[in-house]
Structures are given as structure tokens and as C-alpha cells.
């Protein structure tokens, strides 16, 4: 499988997982975060498809600030600490997918020879790193909801942060 086919499939797999997780989300805010991540994966796939076709790759705008807003809202919801732990396996899988994505795009960034590819892989690394932090926060949230409400920090300053 070539670089483009593999990258596109990786983004499709991540999108499908986030949509499945959203269908089983334990709270409306969690569902919203997962759907935002799924939409980000769609943007990543489209950017890779543009690069594959040697078309202009549009600027990537992440969803960090939108997710921060949802997390802030969830922390204010007193019913939030009743989140079920039966979704832990999916959240762990999401963390692993994002870690693999970061490693893959880091490798492809190092191998890239043209500036457009380098720029895209660098942007994807940053956004997948942000997705990783989001998934780790979601995992923490379902494993320790009371602690998460009191202690979790989720403070990007821009949508492209991380």
C-alpha cells in the first residue's frame, strides 16, 4: 500500500472510530467532542487526497478551541460525574490510533522532499498530537470523572495548537 492509500485509510479508520464512539457517547458533550474529532479526520483525509492529486492543499484549521469550549461546559455540568466506564476500551483504542498517526506523519515528514508535503505532514503531526491530548483527556474523564472535573487542564490558545 502506498503512502497516500495508507494515510487516507488511516484517517478513514480514525473517523469511523470517532463516529462509533459518538454513537455510544456517555454524555452529550462527549458526543460533540467525538464528532468534532471525526470531522477533523475528514479534513485530514481531504488534504491528503489533494496532495496525492498534486492539487493545492488548503490550510488546516483544527478544532482545539471548539473542544476546549465543550470541555469547559462539561466541567460545569453536575451530572457529568455519572459517566459510565464501559467505553474505556474504545477510548484506549483512540489513544493508540493517534499515537500511531503521530509516529507515521513524523516519519513521512522526515522523508518528504517537497515543501508542500513537509508542510502538510507537519500540520497533521500537530493536529494528531492535539487529538492525542483530547483522547487522553476523554480517557481520563471516563476513568476518573470527579478528578477530571476538578483537575483537568485543557488550554489551547489557538485552533492549531499542539
From TrEMBL:
InterPro entries assigned to the protein according to its UniProt record, in alphabetical order: Ferritin-like, Ferritin-like_SF, Rr_diiron-bd_dom
Signal sequence segment: none
Rubrerythrin diiron-binding domain residues: 4-138
Protein name stated in the entry: Rubrerythrin diiron-binding domain-containing protein
Lineage of producing organism: Bacteria, Pseudomonadati, Thermodesulfobacteriota, Desulfobulbia, Desulfobulbales
Amino acid at each position: 500500500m502506498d503512502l497516500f492509500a495508507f494515510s487516507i485509510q488511516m484517517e478513514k479508520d480514525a473517523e469511523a472510530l470517532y463516529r462509533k464512539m459518538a454513537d455510544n457517547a456517555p454524555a452529550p458533550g462527549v458526543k460533540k467532542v467525538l464528532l468534532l474529532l471525526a470531522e477533523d479526520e475528514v479534513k485530514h483525509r481531504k488534504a491528503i487526497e489533494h496532495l496525492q492529486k498534486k492539487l493545492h492543499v488548503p490550510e488546516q484549521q483544527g478544532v482545539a478551541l471548539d473542544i476546549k469550549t465543550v470541555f469547559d461546559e462539561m466541567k460545569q455540568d453536575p451530572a457529568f460525574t455519572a459517566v459510565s466506564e464501559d467505553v474505556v476500551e474504545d477510548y484506549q483504542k483512540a489513544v493508540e490510533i493517534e499515537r500511531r498517526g503521530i509516529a507515521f506523519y513524523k516519519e513521512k515528514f522526515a522523508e518528504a522532499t517537497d515543501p508542500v508535503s513537509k508542510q502538510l505532514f507537519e500540520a497533521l503531526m500537530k493536529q494528531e498530537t492535539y487529538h492525542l491530548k483530547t483522547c487522553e483527556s476523554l480517557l481520563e474523564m471516563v476513568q476518573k470523572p470527579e478528578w477530571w472535573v476538578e483537575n483537568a487542564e485543557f488550554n489551547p490558545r489557538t485552533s492549531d495548537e499542539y
